[in-house]
Amino acid sequence: MFIYGRLEGINTKELVNKCLKEDVLFVPGVEFYINNIKEDEIRFNFTNSTPAQIFKGLNIIKSLIKE
Fold first, then answer.
1. Rounded distance, CA 7 to CA 33, Å?
2. For residues 36 and 34, which has the higher predicted lDDT (pLDDT)?
3. What DSSP letter does each residue of the chain carry, written as one string?
4. Is the pLDDT of residue 25 over 90?
5. Is the predicted pLDDT of residue 67 greater than 90, yes or no?
6. 29 and which of 15, 38, 46, 62 could share a cystine (Cβ 3.0–4.6 Å)?
7. Which residues of 16-45 are buried (b: 16+ CB within 10 A; e: fewer)?
8. Topology given in CATH for the domain delimited by 2-66
C-alpha cells in the first residue's frame, strides 16, 4: 500500500506544498516522527491511483524538485 523513502537534501514538507498546487499529494516523513527530524523522507500511497496517474504524479514531483 505504501512506499516510504528518502529524497536526500529535499525538504519534503516544502515540496508537498508545491505539489498540492499541481494536485499531487504525498505525506512528508516528518509527520511520522515525534521530533520531526526526518525532513527528507516521503511516503507514497499507491492504492487509489492508476499506473498512469502515478507516472504523471512522479513526473510532476521530479519537475518541482529540479526547479
1. 16
2. 34
3. -EEEEE-TT--HHHHHHHHHTTT---EEGGGG-TT---TTEEEEE-TTS-HHHHHHHHHHHHHHHH-
4. yes
5. no
6. 38
7. beebeeeebebbbbbeeeeeeeebbbbebe
8. Aspartate Aminotransferase, domain 1 (3.90.1150)
